Amino acid sequence: MADLNTNDGLLTVTFGSMLKEIRELKGLSTRQLAEISGVSQTYISHLETGRKENTPSPDILAKLADPLGVTYEQLMELAGYIKPGARRQPTEQMTNHDYHRELLDFMHEQYVDKNTDYGNSFSETFDRFGLTAPIVRMWDKLQRIETLSKQDARVKDESIRDTLLDLANYAIMTVIELDKRRGNE
Description:
Blueprint (H helix, E strand, L loop, with lengths): L3 E4 L2 E4 L1 H11 L4 H8 L3 H9 L8 H11 L3 H7 L17 H23 L2 H9 L2 H19 L9 H24 L2
Helix pairs in contact: 1-3, 2-3, 4-5, 6-9, 8-9
């Protein structure tokens, strides 16, 4: 069980104690976790024992997630970067760089999920219609943003934020298609 600390009469669970519990449940020693993750054994030990009081960086958490069998997002929440129940929202501890990474991770997950559900329709459409296809998709998103900014949306499942993230993903997907074609020249 995780170590509990008292703080003004309240019980709190430390990140280090939770890290240790997860590691032990996975059946890993600190040495094994260090070898698999690339994070030093000393650093891991210091986190677990409280000798390292600073919250580990998102880069460290990303290295630890897979070996521990948890998601990056779960570690980000345990470390206090993500508010519980409010995924993909910045916290006071999170820098713009950290939040940028978080948004890119979310966009990547969304891209993978949509490709799994719909196949690679974007690439196929690009092959058939060229650069016109992504321009039309991005134009649709820009028009949606304009509409949402002027009035309350009747469709409640897409916000300006969602639309902007879709627009950003379309821009990245277009760069991928352009780069693939440049590689074939």
